[in-house]
Amino acid sequence: MPSYPVDHVVRYGSHPEQIADVRLARRRPSRAVVLLVHGGFWRQEYDRHHADPVAAALTDEGMTVASVEYRRLGGSGGWPATFDDIAAAVDTLPVLVPPTTHDAQRVVLLGHSAGGHLVLWAAGRHHLPATSGWHLPEPPALQGIVALAPVADLAMADRFGLDDDAVAELLDGHLIERPERYAQCDPSTPLPPAARTVIVHGSEDRHVPIALSHRYVESVLAAGADVTLDVITGGEHFAVIEPGSAAWPRVLAALDAVLTR
């Protein structure tokens, strides 16, 4: 699918994977800066470039997009490196994006699949114990969070054995073996996100069953979160990252919902 050249490349750390491609809004001023976190079950073979059409489509909608790379399974990722990277990216990238291009107070996290898990987790780090290296003393300054077909419940994903036990690989063990890691990294524990959150998930998703999103929403609503689940009837896993698909207007509507809040 069509994309646009990268306007800036920024680094949020010293590791080669700690990088983000920035594409500037094609209409100024920018409505927001979107930190886009790609999926792929946290695995090395999937990188940020498969989400380039998403980044391009969002710049057409007047958003500045930072497409985040991070360390992944099969490379140097997994526990704790993947989480170190996402925490660092969310904490630092908004000020690394060229400041004249966007309102730094309007930051949206957008993630798909495993990236959806990571943005939900990042938006709830202020609920982590103070002893956690990822703990934030205050909620992160976010305008909103949009999670597309997210792996929103790690315990359920582990029980289902999704993608050849990808969660167990990420955390170096199943829930029964690493309960303390699941407690820190599963956003449905719960870690209610810091801002308005919309989840968009297809009812026929075979890669990440929608049951995970239902369970997540149930959990964080009980904890007081402002979260909505938009179910795409008949939708599958990749429609939500395909600009021009029948599901794409629902993704844009989710972004509008958090930006106008």
Secondary structure blueprint with pairings:
Layout: E1 8-11, E2 19-23, E3 33-37, H1 52-60, E4 64-68, H2 81-96, E5 107-112, H3 114-122, E6 144-148, H4 154-160, H5 162-171, H6 179-185, E7 197-202, H7 211-222, E8 227-232, H8 248-259
Parallel strand pairs: 3-4, 3-5, 5-6, 6-7, 7-8
Antiparallel strand pairs: 1-2, 2-4
Helix pairs in contact: 4-5
Describe the structure concisely.
The protein has 261 residues and is an alpha/beta fold. Helix content is 31%, strand content 16%.
At the first level of CATH, what is the class? Alpha Beta
* Poorly predicted sequence stretches spanning 5 or more consecutive residues: none
- Kindly report the spatial arrangement of strands forming the biggest sheet: 1-2-4-3-5-6-7-8
Radius of gyration from the alpha-carbon trace, in angstroms: 17 Å
The end-to-end distance, rounded to whole angstroms, is 31 Å
Biggest beta sheet summary? 8 strands, mixed
- CATH topology (fold) name: Rossmann fold
CATH superfamily: Alpha/Beta hydrolase fold, catalytic domain
- Give the structural class: alpha/beta
Helix share bin:
25-40%
**What's the tally of helices?**
8
Beta-strand percentage range: 15-25%
- Number of domains in the coordinates? 1
Mean pLDDT: 95
Shape: globular
CATH architecture, please? Answer: 3-Layer(aba) Sandwich
